[in-house]
Write a structure and sequence with these properties.
Distance between the termini: 89 Å
Mean pLDDT: 81
Largest sheet: 2 strands, antiparallel
Strand content: under 5%
Number of helices: 25
Shape: elongated
Oligomer: single chain
Order of helices and strands: HHEEHHHHHHHHHHHHHHHHHHHHHHH
Structural class: mainly alpha
Number of strands: 2
Length: 505
């Protein structure tokens, strides 16, 4: 026991000597740490929390790795400091109740530094009260490394505050253990490097996901139904929320429902590649009611797959209000009956979202040419694309029709598709060839065919009978009457040909 006390006494004496020497050394340095150099009592070095080392050859006993001096506080001192810090936070309007079980800084100055740093990011007192745990993050150990990494991967410095507001939990994350693996996973899905910041700003919670959880299973399922793996990256960029969706409760039910309506699985896959946000539509609250709404407005069940494939967004619109408004508009302006309106929607469902001012311009042009409103209605039922055409182009085509071709207006009523063809690249050159050959034919005969088929018709000894335009058969082949371009030898599947030729997403 006596030996123990003697050794302890020697150690204390040695320690005091070294501290005194260290204080003297720091005072003689050319650029000493000002807080330490001005200490009268060398033992106050322990309260600075500063890391330092010396490699002076004059004091070989200090040639050692840097030592971090921590604050030595007793239990009572900790409690006192905690009360001071909480009073400071309350004075700012911050409620510190949730910080009760959180380790706080040793001094109020450190807490002030945290608060001021976060305020410079444009966070507010309300943000602190909404997630007070961010005040438990060290500026140097947590906040600065995380923000630095976020800026590095593409989030602008000016947007960092907004990012922290939307996902403050990121400040607790480890850059190496948690953030970097998620970023690597996104790059592995072919998300472009320049798109990382955009994706994470849209869905910051991705940084908190486990790689082996929801993200992997949702990607795996989409690939299993026919989504091209190369399209996963663009899909994530367009709608990153898909990585947080559970397959069993969200993704699969929507896919199964669309297939039950008659859409082939691979066409559903193509739709999701181009319009990934469809997965965000609520199946029970939005999708199913919208399908029922279409049926209630006269759209045939067998036409539903075509309508959805052409305009997938129709599943997520406030559809009843839009259909009611457009149906009333067409009836008011051109006396179109509900049955005709249903046919228009089947052929061009995008009309439900088309601005009525845009629709009226072509309608007024046709009415102004002396075409009765009931005939204008027939024209739009036959060719709904008329309501989306530019009036100047329609004027040019109509002028050529009347002055050069000299045909009656009733032919336009029978074949309103005339206005959808290019005047310079199709109508004029083909009409000129007909004139040179001395052939007189209907508009449909010389316009509704490919260039190859038109040349074959010119070489024929007679004018073949006319057929209707392209027809859409869900699950079958697209048939182009009088044109054999779609053959059994094509590499694409029937459904892919159908989708490519009838849907422009």
């Amino acid at each position: 026991m006596t030996l123990y006390f003697l050794q302890r006494s020697k150690l204390l004496t040695l320690f005091s000597t070294k501290i005194a020497s260290l204080s003297s050394l720091l005072k003689t340095q050319q650029n000493p740490c000002p807080q330490i150099a001005q200490l009268d009592n060398p033992f106050r070095v322990l309260q600075l929390g500063v890391s330092f080392s010396t490699q002076s050859s004059k004091f070989p006993e200090y040639e050692m790795p840097s030592v971090t001096w921590g604050v030595v506080q007793g239990k009572r001192e900790k409690l006192v400091n905690r009360v001071i810090i909480c009073d400071y936070l309350k004075s700012l309007g911050i409620i510190p109740d949730e910080l009760e079980n959180l380790e706080l800084p040793s001094t109020v100055d450190v807490m002030k530094e945290r608060v001021e740093f976060l305020l410079k990011l444009r966070l507010t007192i309300d943000d602190f009260n909404e997630y007070p745990l961010m005040l438990g993050c060290s500026v140097r150990k947590n906040i600065i490394p995380v923000l630095g990494y976020l800026e590095k991967i593409g989030i602008p410095r000016s947007k960092l505050g907004e990012f922290v507001k939307s996902y403050p939990q990121v400040l607790h994350a480890s850059v190496v253990v948690e953030l970097m693996p998620v970023v690597k996973f996104l790059r592995g899905l072919d998300v472009e490097k320049q798109d990382l910041g955009y994706v994470l700003q849209k869905y910051p919670e991705l940084l908190g996901f486990k790689l082996e959880g929801t993200m992997s299973t949702s990607v795996g399922y989409l690939v299993s139904i026919g989504v091209n793996p190369r399209d996963i990256g663009p899909m994530v960029t367009q709608y990153p929320y898909l990585l947080g969706m559970r397959v069993g409760t969200i993704i699969k039910p929507i896919v199964d429902y669309l297939i039950s309506l008659g859409l082939p699985k691979n066409i559903v896959a193509r739709m999701l590649e181009k319009r990934t946000y469809i997965l965000g539509y609520d199946l029970e609250e939005t999708v199913k009611p919208n399908v029922d709404c279409l049926i209630s407005f006269g759209i045939r069940k067998e036409a539903l797959p075509s309508v959805i494939a052409q305009y997938p967004q129709i599943l997520g619109l406030p559809l009843k209000a839009k259909l009611s408004s457009q149906q009333y508009f067409f009836n008011l302006k051109i006396r179109m009956d509900p049955e005709g309106f249903a046919q228009v929607i089947e052929k061009m469902p995008q009309i439900v979202s088309l601005n009525q001012n845009v629709i009226m311009k072509p309608v007024e042009f046709l009415l102004g040419r002396g075409i009765p409103s009931e005939d204008v209605a027939k024209m739009i039922v036959k060719c709904p694309q008329l309501v989306a055409l530019r009036v100047p182009l329609m004027k040019n085509s109509f002028y050529f029709y009347k002055t050069e071709m000299g045909r009656p207006v009733n032919e336009l009523v029978d074949f309103p598709e005339y206005f959808t063809y290019s005047l310079e690249s199709r109508i004029k050159p083909r009409y000129q060839k007909l004139q040179n050959k001395g052939i007189h034919s209907s508009l449909n005969w010389f316009l509704n065919c490919s260039d190859q088929r038109f040349e074959e018709r010119l070489q024929g000894d007679y004018i073949e009978s006319e057929n209707v335009g392209p027809s859409f058969y869900m699950g079958g082949r697209l048939e182009l009457p009088g044109y054999e371009a779609v053959s059994d030898e094509e590499d694409e599947s029937d459904d892919d040909v159908l989708y490519r030729r009838t849907v422009s997403l």
